[in-house]
Amino acid sequence: MRIFRGRYETTAERHRTTSFEIFFDLVFVFALTRIVEFMEDEPSAVTLTRGLLLFLLLWFSWSSYAWLGNQVRADVGLVRTGTLAAMAAMFVAALAIPGAWRGSGPVPTALVLAASYMAVRTLHLALFLAVSRDRQLTRTLRLTAVPVVLGWIPLVTGALVGGATQTVLWTVAFAVDVGGARIASGFSPWPLRSVSHFTERHRLVLIIAVGESLISIGIGAGAELRGWLVLLAALLGFAAAASLWRLYFDRFASVIERSLEGASAARRATIASDAYSLAHFPMVAGIMYVAFGIEQVLATLIHEPDAHQRPLGLPGTVALYAGGALYLVGRALCLRLATMHATLAPLAGAAVLLLLIAPARLLPAVVALALLVLALMAQLAVEWAGPDRRPRCPPTSQRVDAGRRG
Q1: Do 151 and 102 contact (CB within 8 A), yes or no?
Q2: Which of 40, 131, 172, 218 is the most exposed place for a label (fewest CB within 10 A)?
């Protein structure tokens, strides 16, 4: 054990994201594209729900390694070797995603996916235990391991059974895994060593998710442009992606990051766990659904007769507008958890997007996409014109307390 303990490097307070972690994120974005591909195969409410379950699998796998890389360098020694093995397991999981609910074929893809997920989670816990020299952290890991292992029972059972039962059992599996881990962290919070590293990892994953939406646009447009409407739809998709990017990076990211930096040590762990690991999930999921909706618009324009008059299907419309609403709700939740300051603008924008689903369902596909872009741009204008023009800085007392504790 001493040999293994010597093969890692503890992170500094100002540690930043390494190139090795960016490599890890590339595997993550590949898996995101596979989820979109899975939902494209048979677009329906059931498929969209299953896509969310698959994204849960990916997100909490990614998030757990963000915490690990915050404690020890991900590109050194034992941790690098173990993380490479986890990346290989995640890559295999990504390959299995499109066939996760198919019962035919020589390879039991659902079982492969379940086994890959278990490997990623096992490696994370084993690596964290190997490098932990803190009693509280070791206690947190041991408490977390209990629901993680219990969640494997419905996970494997669902993979063997398949169909609707698989969906129910996998929902139970992730509820046990993620919910139990959240309860465990409530008793023994995860320590946060480097604020700059943790915030940068989440900024990068948002950029990667937006990049995934652009990849979906490129795939949906096909090998060659088949008309002016396709070009217009692709540009509208780019405008939607740019609007989502601005809604996070123009001011929002600096607000929550300043709040995390200025908080006390105990409060930092809570903000990191709630505002980042938890509340960033609906934002990235929302981007994924919007990407799927844009791809459906392009597919309609390319493959349907009378494409300029053809409305977008219900799954695509719901993905576009409910995905945008999910993104805005995630922003509101993240801001509330990070700063204890509630704002109605994102929630009002989310409500507007949900109300637009019904009329957008009747519009031609490219017009429905244009309406989404207008709604997102209006959201940007409203938030910029609001009274809170400058990022809120945490109270001085909190920053002084953080300095004393640090």
Answers
A1: no
A2: 218
Give the separation between CA 356 and CA 163, rounded to whole angstroms. Answer: 32
pLDDT (tens digit, 9 = 90+) per residue, 153-181?
999 999 999 889 999 999 999 899 888 87
CB atoms within 10 A of CB 163: 10
For every residue of 133-152, DSSP letters joined together read --HHHHHHHHHHHHHHHHHH
Query: The tokens of 261 are what?
Result: 């930096």
Sorting pLDDT into bands at 50, 70 and 90, what band is 188? low
Q: What is the dihedral of CA 211, 390, 341, 188, to 10 degrees?
A: 60
Length of the chain, please? Answer: 406
Structure tokens at 359: 């009329």
Task: Copy the structure tokens of residue 275.
Answer: 């505002």
pLDDT 10s digits, 87-111:
999 999 999 998 898 766 677 899 9
Report how far residue 254's alpha carbon sits from residue 277's, in angstroms, rounded to the nearest whole number.
Answer: 17
CA 284 to chain centre: 4
Residue 206's contacts (CB-CB under 8 Å, 6 or more residues apart) are: 245, 248, 249, 280, 283, 284, 287
pTM of the model: 0.87
Provide the pLDDT confidence category of residue 19 given band limits of 50, 70 and 90.
Answer: very high
Nearest to 241 by CA among 55, 59, 376, 371: 376
Q: Minimal CA–CA distance to 257: which of 364, 332, 339?
A: 339
**Token pair recorded at residue 314:** 């219900």
Measure the CA dihedral 89/91/93/98, to 10°: -170
CB-count burial class (<10 Å; 0-12, 13-18, 19+) for 43: buried
CA angle 241–284–201, rounded 5-degree value: 100
Q: Which two tokens stand for residue 61?
A: 């796998």
- What are the pLDDT digits (tens) for 334-390? 999 998 887 889 999 999 999 999 999 999 999 999 999 999 999 999 988 765 544
Helices within 42-134 (DSSP H only): 45-71, 77-96, 109-131
